[in-house]
Amino acid sequence: GPHHDTPPHRVPERSEMTTTVGLKVGSVTACAVIEAPGGRTVTCRSSALRLSADGGVDVTDEADGLRIDFPELVPNPTPFGLPTGGTATVAELYARAVRALLDRSGGPANPTRIVLAVPAHWDPEVVDRISGHCADRGIDNVHTLAEPVAAATWLRHFHGADEPVLVFDMG
Prior knowledge:
The chain is an alpha/beta fold and 171 residues long. The protein has four helices and ten strands. The strands form three sheets. Strands 1-10-9-2-3-4 form a six-stranded mixed beta sheet. A two-stranded antiparallel ribbon has the order 5-6. A two-stranded antiparallel sheet has the order 7-8. Helix 2 (90-104) crosses helix 3 (124-136).
């Protein structure tokens, strides 16, 4: 099942590291960070969507992409009509965008660990719904963290911050 705000207990030694992917899909950008034994790869692009008539979704930098305010609209469970026909909830489109970002990141299709940073104001039911939609897209091993928790965890583990860390999330 989904895991909420559960940072790793320790950072694995380099020799035991496997591929971990950090993902974030916001209202403006979508980013994937791949941590693998060979190094780190970062992919950031617009979070605008390109929808195809067969239900496919991709993240695109093209100006005509469908822009959705994911942080504010994902909690709404009401399906809406898609420009290509059919209906979907914003949470379903969000999970499709996560899948597209993962596919475009150049990492493995099903990495050992996936951490999805989500807005801190989403309640657990919304996060569970996102985790379920991600599982429907073949992303079964997703761990969700509130964005500020993900940032603080990254700072502490990868930069050895021994002092208190303050994360200011500007939205």
